# Entry
Amino acid sequence: MATTVERLTYAAAQTARVAFYGAHYLVARVVARDAFADADTPSRKFPSLRATLKGMRALFVTDLKNAEQGLYPMPLDLADEMRRARASLLYLADIPRVAERRRRNGHDEVDADADHLPRYYRQNFHFQTDGYLSDDSARLYDFQVEALFAGTADAMRRRAYVPIARFIESRDPARMTLLDIGAGTGRFLSFVKGAQPRLKAVALDLSEPYLERARRALSKHRSVKFLAASAEDVPLDDASVDAAVSIFVFHELPPRVRIRVAREIARVLKPGGIFVLADTIQYGDISDCDGLIDAFPTLLHEPYYESFARSDLGALFGAAGLKLIDTDIAYLTKIWVFEKKAGRKPQGRKRS
Ligand SMILES: C[S@@+](CC[C@H](N)C(=O)[O-])C[C@H]1O[C@@H](n2cnc3c(N)ncnc32)[C@H](O)[C@@H]1O
# Structure
């Protein structure tokens, strides 16, 4: 159980986060007010401020409770928060560039030398400067996500760790491997290694600059491997990982690629292993949010988002051999937990 001081510090830190990142989001919104005005049509249902704050509060109450139960350390690294907040000026300087790209629908402006990467990937998702393919983009990414979610992104990511923590509870973490697919800058694995330093982890991502950032973020931890590779062709052996996770990635994959990635995950997981997928809520999960889901793809250049928000992930992964065993909603993030049935033959080929 946390001390009163820890609880108060947690509440103050999260409130400060919401105010700080929320203010940045508002600045971005003011600069791009024409785009938001277009998105805000009377037929769309958006959550009220009251409902938004209620949703955030519920997220933080559960986050605190999970930390108190010992699932992960209390998120009270204030020095780290301050360091991360220093990206504010970079973020603010980039807002007009993003707004201008959105105005002219400039979503095809990433590094021309990146033609070894899949075509669907070489886009300016979120109208982001350089897409996922520069050091500047990697430096800004975490801040942009926190601003978009008004300071709640880390707490939503931590929720994806809960089923993994429970899975590890009765096992020896030093003998287990967790694969993070689309690990980005390593934010999630930083929480995981903070909670379970002995667990082996693999960070896989197509972006070298993001992986480089992840390497730095995780440099104080042992037993982390970094793979610059695609999720549809994972360079790991069949049945070689105990658990896998993927956070905020699936909505950026075209439907045909989602099927290939689901098969790859089923292939590399050991029988009895789990896969945790965390991504945005879908249509109908929170009725007041359907308008947000409608507006998201055009505001943020998310070409595959609508199909994701309508897709039946239980059926998609079921066809690959993974059974849906649980779901959870953490504010604007939904978490699906899948299990690979024990004794099931791998779907793909064996790697050398
Ligand atoms: C929206 S970011 C999510 C990053 C991180 N998981 C998080 O929690 O913020 C999507 C990430 O997935 C990576 N990605 C997208 N498609 C991929 C693919 N086919 N294979 C590997 N990584 C991919 C991108 O490079 C990017 O780092």
